[in-house]
Amino acid sequence: MSFERTEPATPKRRSDARNKGQIPKSADFNSAVMLAIGTYLIAIFSPGIMTKFKSVTIEVFTNLNPSRVSMENFHGYLMPYVYVTMSILLPILITLMVCGIILNYLQIGYLFTLEPIMPNFSKLSPMSMLNGLKKIFIINPRSLVELAKSFAKMLIVAGVAYFSIMSSKQDILTLLGADVELALGRVSGIIFKMITQIIIILIFLGIIDKKYQHYEFEKSMKMSKEEIKDEFKNSEGDPKIKSKIKSVQMQFAMQRMSSAVPKADVVITNPTHYAVALKYDTSVAPAPQVVAKGVDFVAFKIKEIAKHNGVPIVENKPLARTLYKVVPLDGLIPAELYVAVAEVLAYVYRTGKNRVK
To answer: Which of 91, 285, 305, 322 is deepest in the core (most CB within 10 A)?
Structure first.
């Protein structure tokens, strides 16, 4: 018997994995996009940031009296910087948080589960701890891939930074002795260009990692044919047990019909596929009641019991089908069928209770 995992995961296995928080997701892609958003937010707000810091610095040092500065009131001189820093950081942080939520939603959709953080006490057993120690010393292919990715990103970032600086070496050298504001502007431009190049490469690597994570997830989710059979048995029930249950249900239904059909006033048939037994007793219910119904073999048994007990059998194809589909067992017929059923009962009472058509 083969237990090789060659079959795609079933919807149930995927659903169970998702509920446990097991989903294909690239942290590298998210980090690269968030770095890009954060960088460009700072670039957009940088003029305002510099203006705020400049104004607060001028205000503080203009009103600064060194003789009044002490350890007790030192924090008071720092508070304007704190307020300015918070006014700068809060919009950026809130924007990043919203973008992070949207980015995660676009990757995995809506998902809320506490399964990943739930304590698993089975891992505290000596055997589980021993297996954990073994994993430390065993080379895991997935760990090697993650290590290779980290080294690759580090080398790429270092290489881009190096070539970016070397290509701008002449521009940097010309800034020696230049105005501070001009020098800061030129250096900021060089740094921004370098970070942009790094972000583009990181996003490209993130897209590759996203596809790799999806591939690894699909590979880990594959099932063997035996697992699919076991899942089907667990979800749908063992076919043998289901067959036995149906057999028992059929026996109960036949026993119930054996006692209910003889007391019926009429059996309405299709004539071969459907059979519905009605009883009308005003002391029990305000409308005719379906006391037995069935199709094919069950319908045949209902008609057989009715013939044996002298219960009238009336052929009315549309009424038999409608009663079977609309009215549940022991249910009262609906108002829209009163006229059709009344005509049948009137016919039965008029022609005699024991007459069989």
So the answer is: 305
